[in-house]
Specification:
It contains 11 helices and no strands. With about 350 residues, the chain is an all-alpha fold. The N and C termini lie far apart (about 140 Å).
Length: about 350
């Protein structure tokens, strides 16, 4: 009885596919005297047909092999359903966000359908479809996020309170119940086969009873734990659905949590788009400031150059007037006069007490 878990699951699947039918067993029994001349496949079928409850034993062994894997697939779904129901019921940030959404709705519908006490959760995702009349890329959701960031910054992080909602949005209650039912019926079939084998005298070396008895003890406890968790998860889920004004008998977890999951995704995308628009605006403002500063700097440089040019022209005019008065304008080299003037000014600056040089005429 595969006590050491030597048989892989895929081999058991193949063995179950080729379980001999009653007509095959009868035919093999008629030719059992020709056993030595049979093909290996026929001899194998003949030997298998002699095992009492061969198919039921194989099915029990296969269920034992698959049990832990199947429970491992069910548990996360049950846990996600249980925890996600708690999250939407207990999250204060999410509750405050819904209050702001309701306030928005009442303000926008003022004079028509205002002063509402609540709204359907299915309407939550219509916020992302309500576009601005000025910019079609801006929706009511973008504006809502802007207000939340300014007035209620903690609420913006409400997604941290709903971490199991995306997982619960993939859970279908009908399919989950079916998986649980299959596990339950599988356990019962194994228990029935165990009772049958106990009632028969076992052959030497047959460990079916001992191995399966131990499995049933462990598996029953594990399955009971899953059932209890599912019961609690269902109760919390029905409470959450009723809390949000929906019909618990009609709404499945994937539909209910799917609404919140879609809103979470839209909220995250709109928040990122707001951040991108804010960044682009800041970059544009920075570019405009830089251009203005550059323009101002160029204007200063232009004025400085102009002032310098005007200063040089004024100096030349003063030199010309001085030359006319002194008579130096009639010298052959007027530039000599300019150089003398510059040299004298330089010497006066370096040593104000130095006596001026007197020009001598011979």
């Amino acid at each position: 009885m595969d006590e050491q878990e030597d048989l892989p699951k895929d081999m058991l699947e193949q063995l179950l596919k080729f379980v001999p039918e009653k007509s095959d067993i009868d035919l093999l029994e008629e030719h059992k005297h020709e056993l030595d001349r049979m093909a290996k496949a026929d001899r194998f079928l003949y030997e298998m047909s002699r095992i009492n409850h061969y198919q039921q034993r194989l099915q029990s062994l296969y269920f034992k092999k698959k049990f832990a894997e199947r429970v491992g697939e069910v548990k996360p779904k049950v846990e996600a359903l249980r925890v996600a129901s708690k999250e939407v019921l207990q999250s204060r940030n999410f509750k405050q966000l819904l209050e702001v959404v309701l306030a928005f709705g009442n303000y926008m519908n003022k004079g028509q359908r205002g002063n509402a006490y609540g709204f359907k959760v299915s309407s939550l995702n219509k916020i992302a479809d309500t576009k601005s009349s000025i910019d079609k890329n801006i929706t009511l959701l973008h504006y809502l996020i802007t207000i939340l960031e300014k007035k209620y910054p903690k609420v913006v992080a409400f997604h941290e309170d709903l971490q199991n909602v995306p997982i619960a949005a993939k859970v279908n209650m009908t399919e989950l119940d079916k998986e649980i039912s299959n596990l339950r019926s599988g356990l019962k079939n194994v228990e029935s086969e165990l009772e049958f084998q106990k009632s028969k005298s076992s052959q030497s070396g047959d460990k079916f009873v001992s191995v399966v008895s131990q499995f049933i003890t462990v598996a029953s406890f594990s399955f009971s734990d899953v059932e209890d968790s599912l019961t609690e998860a269902k109760e919390l889920f029905y409470r959450a659905v009723k809390h949000f004004g929906e019909d618990a008998n009609k709404m499945q977890p994937d539909e209910f949590f799917g609404i919140f999951d879609q809103f979470l995704q839209s909220f995250s995308e709109a928040k990122q788009e707001n951040e991108n628009m804010r960044r682009r605006k800041e970059e544009e403002e920075r570019r405009v400031r830089m251009e203005a500063q550059l323009k101002e700097q160029r204007e200063k440089e232009r004025k400085s150059r102009k002032a310098k040019e005007n200063g040089e022209e004024d100096g030349e005019f003063d030199d010309l007037v001085s030359a006319l008065r002194s008579g130096e304008v009639f010298d052959k080299d007027l530039s000599k006069m300019k150089r003398n003037r510059k040299r004298i000014n330089s010497q006066v600056t370096e040593n104000s007490r130095e006596r001026p040089v007197t020009k001598l005429n011979f």
